[in-house]
Predict the structure.
Amino acid sequence: MTLLIETLIQGISLGSIYALIALGYTMVYGIAKMLNFAHGDVIMVGAYTIYTTISLAHFPGWLGVLTSVVFCSVLGIVIEFLAYKPLRGAPSLNVLITAIGISYLLQNLALLIFGGQQEDVPNTGINVPSLDLGFVVVEGKVIFTIVLTVVLMIALTLFINKTKMGKAMRAVSEDKDAARLMGINVNRTISLTFAIGSALAAFASLCYGMNYTYIKPTTGSMPGIKAFTAAVFGGIGSIPGAMLGGFGIGILEKLSQAYITPIFGEITDVIVFGVLIIMLVVRPTGLLGKKIREKV
Amino acid sequence: MLRAENLNVYYGNIHAIHDVSFEVKEGEIVSLIGANGAGKTTTMHTVSGLLRSRTGSVTFMDKNISHTDAHKIVNMGIAQVPEGRHVFLQMSVEENLEMGAYTTPKTMKADLEKVYSLFPRLLERRRQVAGTLSGGEQQMLAMGRAMMSRPKLMLLDEPSMGLAPILVDQVFSIIKELHATGITVLLVEQNAGKALAISDRAYVLESGRVVLSGTGAELAASPEIKKAYLGG
């Protein structure tokens, strides 16, 4: 019983990280109708920014984190502007291949700058005390991860539903031409979406770094692809879907590690991606995804 | 107020409209009529900036808007009610109207009341998602949404399309009401009879060319128009 509860808590914590990343995939898909496969590598960039600012430049922890968030947002805007904007209206395969190219570009830039060795994630100074519930002790980093994620999700939901810019984002994701006829600057709205998605990825990299103490140039790809699975699982394009999918995949992964690995060996990834395949076969729109109606 | 000269618009290699020129004077209702595929919507999208002409120019209130971004044209005082309504189906009625006021946030409250008094149905359904509205209600929402930006010129693309006859009459009487509040109207319609009846002037498009123009009454009386568009 204790193992189950501990596993579920760890699953929620890992799922929080996936959910933060999945939000970036799903928002960009919703608005630009493209899969931004470079998104996972933004996490890696966020982690290296924290490493550079705190370990190498000796910034205070909070400033390092803030720099990372700002840097990733700007990076998101720059990637969209340089790589994807020129392809607006191009076949989706071209955009997809470009995204994969950007992913390799970011990884290899990191390799060039920092080398292939692992680097330790610095202490950001964020220190949340552990919580002893009697039957189980919840680590401070787990509490921090979950609380930060929930706060960011609430903020994002309020932004999307209550603010003018957020509503404009929904309008653009639904009907670009109609949005332009309302006077909405579609390009700027897409840039904003990339900025928000990338900022969330930076927060994810902060949480990831606290839990997995080292980074290397390929650090972003596995959590990136798992979060993509989460976004598809929840219904790509749906914001609540990305949250639900993130937690779902995180919990599934931890449950599998706790109960299946001891018997069948390390097959967790097989199970996670198996779920993706089953979802695509049984319910291609995901848990909360909407049916896409093709316009005649 | 609006002057389009020598518009030539292409979709890839397809030459959709040929040397189209027309004019809308302040305070008029002007119609573009013609069959399916005649180039009416293409012409309208060229005015609102969604499409570009390779030649000629579009001038609005003495400013050349041929190369102005669509979202900036709204700000200058042109609002379009697109064909097929294109309301935001997943957003509430009120959110749709708020998007209409995107460029005019200061007057949004007052304009919401104006739209709701013109369309009481929308007030009843303001919290409802637009996708749950009937076709007629969606048309009213699209028209109300366009009013929210306080346009000087309103472009209406096939506002009566797909509506029951009783609603068609309602739509045309709303157009007259909007016009009475001082909005100049450019109307695209397949329902030529109704359109000509409320128009000061009209242009007839055929295969992407303007083939006839005149006052609404003249065209309604013309034997060619009667034969081609008014059922004999």
